[in-house]
Every structure is written in structure tokens, then in C-alpha cells.
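Section 4.2 – Deliverable D4.2 (structural model, holo form)

The reporting period included a commitment to supply a predicted holo structure for the target in complex with magnesium ion. Inputs used:
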Amino acid sequence: MKTVTLKDKTFGISIPEAKLFEAIDKVAEKMTTELEGKNPLFLIVLNGAFMFASDLLKRVEIPAQLSFVKVASYCGTESTGKVTELIGLNEDVKGRTVVIIEDIVDSGRTMYGMVQKLKSLGVEDLRIATLFFKPEALQYDLNINYVAMEIPNNFIVGYGLDYDGYGRNLRDIYTLIS
Ligand code: IMP
Ligand code: MG
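Output (C-alpha cells):
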């Protein structure tokens, strides 16, 4: 098996690029059908989703806008709880169809915060697209519209996903061995 070592950890190849592309093709087809005529704004969550967004959105050939955001989360007041801030969101999202493009939904906390934030900004039709989804890890009530691949609850790197900043540039997906 092909392995890579990133800092102190070793990872083994688990999903080759070709398999990712097959899954991405299917999501792209579904998106094209469902979003045609809706003038969607794709919100790409940095850093992890950059490769997925690139390969996905070049296959969704409909009029659309793209924007790149970073998610910051901090503790608000007692009544507001955790507050999510979207850094780099310069578009007016009120009344729009917005599709979040994420690399992986694990506990779902990041996406849940983002959904609350975007709803409060008046998004009319909010959808989530994720490359990977770990159903066993989910702890929040989320409706994920587009899932390219469901995976077991193991730590992965590659194709945009990192371990401590490393591994994002790998073209295939690797799973933690030791
Ligand atoms: P959540 O908020 O718990 O759903 O976590 C989502 C974020 O954690 C993702 O956007 C990733 O940045 C990171 N993450 C979760 N699982 C993995 C993984 O297996 N590899 C790399 N990053 C991960
Ligand atoms: Mg992420």
C-alpha cells in the first residue's frame, strides 16, 4: 500500500482520485439539474474545500457566482451561545439560493453554525454540499443536500484535507494508520 508520512503520523492510501471524480460527477449532475435557473451563490469554505470546489464547479455549467469564505467561531453571550462569523462574505445573500461547499462534515458543528448565520442573513434557499460525510460522527441536526461520499469515522487527509496543515496537496485520500 502507498503510504505518506506527515509530521509524526503515517497514512495509507484509501480513496484514489478516480473514485473521487466518479462521486463528484454524480453530485455535479444532480446540482446542474436542481440549480439551473436559480442563480446560485456557491460559498466555498476555505481552506479544505478548495480542490473539491474546483473539480465540482467546473462540472456544474450553469450561471452562478462563487465566493470564498473562512469560518470563525467564538463564544457569544449566554443567549446567543456559539457565534459563527463568515470572513470574506461580501455578497448580499438576502433572498438568494446559497450552496455551501464543504470538504467534510464530521460532528456537524461547523455547518450548523454556518446555517444559523446564513439564515439570519436572509438566505431563501440554503443547501449544503460536502465531499465527505461521517454519519457516525454527526451530532447536530443538519440537512445535507449533496454528499459525494459517506465514509467511516476515521481521520483522513489529502485532496484539500489536512493534518496540522500538511497533506492538502495530495491528489488521493489517505487514512490514518498510526
Ligand atoms: P465538524 O465541525 O466537527 O463537522 O468538523 C468539520 C471540520 O473538521 C472540517 O471542516 C475539517 O476541517 C475538520 N475535519 C473533520 N474530520 C476531518 C478529517 O478526517 N480530516 C481532516 N479534517 C477533518
Ligand atoms: Mg473545513
